[in-house]
Write a structure and sequence with these properties.
- The chain is an alpha/beta fold.
- About 35% of the residues lie in helices and about 25% in strands.
- Strands 3-2-1-4-5-6 form a 6-stranded mixed beta sheet.
- Strand 4 and strand 5 form a beta hairpin.
- The longest helix is centred in the C-terminal third of the chain and has 18 residues.
- The N and C termini lie far apart (about 35 Å).
């Protein structure tokens, strides 16, 4: 097993699209640390899918979110039962990208100090590795499905 700094996963090729899913989210940490990583610095589209109740709790606390709706979109996902709890990311670059799946939330402790597990599966469009391309396609379908469980206008923008 190789221990990595979570941020090293975001020091590769620049992303065109980055999709994240999380239960808890810290906009200040996301903006100050992750949006400044090489992979996300110039991304054209970034969306963070998160549990709708957790998002409402954040809004009530009036958290600092300078780049919300300018550099990234938060997509609050409503669940009729339970909560929206996956931690799955899809990073698309010009040549391919990576699928990340792990246990960490997009918070300072989830990415910096907690002991968390994260798998990163890279893929390249030119080297059509069937398994990794199927995983990337399934991950995209996951996000498309999650976009259906949000408010109509937010879902339209996310899709």
């Amino acid at each position: 097993m190789k221990y990595l700094d979570c941020f090293s996963l975001f020091e590769g090729d620049p992303a065109y699209i980055a999709l994240f899913s999380t239960f808890q989210f810290d906009p200040d940490f996301f903006e100050r640390r992750l949006l400044r990583c090489e992979t996300l610095k110039k991304a054209r589209r970034i969306a963070v899918f998160m549990d709708a109740k957790q998002w409402q709790d954040l809004l009530q606390r009036d958290v600092h979110a300078r780049w919300l709706n300018r550099r990234y979109l938060v997509v609050p996902v409503h669940r009729s039962t339970g909560v929206f709890h996956p931690k799955l990311n899809l990073i698309l670059t010009e040549n391919g990208g990576q699928v990340q799946c792990g246990s960490n939330n997009l918070t300072r402790s989830g990415c910096s100090s907690n002991l968390e597990l994260i798998n990163s599966i890279p893929f390249e469009f030119e080297h059509e590795d069937a398994e990794s391309m199927q995983l990337a396609s399934a991950t995209l379908r996951f996000f498309q499905r999650a976009a259906q469980d949000t408010d109509a206008e937010v879902g339209r923008i996310a899709a």
